[in-house]
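User: I'll paste a sequence; please echo it back and then give the predicted structure.

Assistant: Echoing your sequence first, then the prediction.
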Amino acid sequence: MKIISYVTSILGLALISGNAAAQSTPFEGAYFNGFVDYEHGVISGTSGEILTAELNMGFAPRNFGSSMAVGFDLEIDVFDTSFISGTALYPSLFIDGTYGRFSIGLPRSVIGSYISRPSFANSSLDNFVLNNSRRSAMYAGNIGFPDFNTDYGIRYDGQIGNTEFGASYHKVTSNGDAFNIYGLAARHKIGMTQIFGGIEFLTSNGFSNENIHIGFETRYDQFSGGATYSNSSETHVFANYHMNDQIEFNASFWNRDTRANRYGLGVKYGFWEGAYVDAGVVYRNGATDNTNYNVSLGYEF
């Protein structure tokens, strides 16, 4: 497992970016953000480590006065354990202007951007397994299948009032077969509440499949929460209590017709401008080894 190498590299980039952001720089329009999380868990009686990371970096200067930017964006997903390891890269060139953003290259699917994936008891493994249905098929393919390749993609993002929306298309190959992935998604804000939804179509030589996602999230004072539902009969309900700027508690419930219900509790403590430690416990109703535990050290930037 390449976890130590990954942790060293990603934390190095994060710390450098944090220091650079605090200083003046000639590269106006540059950005670098994301998180890295290193977890120790006990899963079905077996202990192990998991590294997850999501990074977003790019350069978007205002090239034509203040109305348009032509830039470069790169998003990176990392998931590394002893039993599965993968890295997904999403590089793209874009034009950002009055009529929205047009991206070409290998941009992330709109499903991966507009559909919320709330944390389940701060567990990297549960988040990976349960949130796969709320991600694009591109994520599962890139992380879980070494022969999965994205040939090219295009994407559009726009906004009208309080509604953001997007559409994307990707051509991918796996095991020598070609697939088309089409995505449509939107998010609407009403006060402190956001409603979101999306649909993704996967087609290949007479085969077709669609994934539909809807949900909402809201916040009132120190409390936040919401729910998501997918056409795979999957429901996730979550609630958070923000005790103060440093301490947060969360509770989750997950149900799918063909699997055991899951219940999760977690706590997170933040310190040192983006660093955090968290812990969680997940109970699976009806499972043989029904309780998982996890503790993590991470950094958000």
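Helices lie at 3-21, 111-114, 124-131, 137-144. The mean pLDDT is 86.
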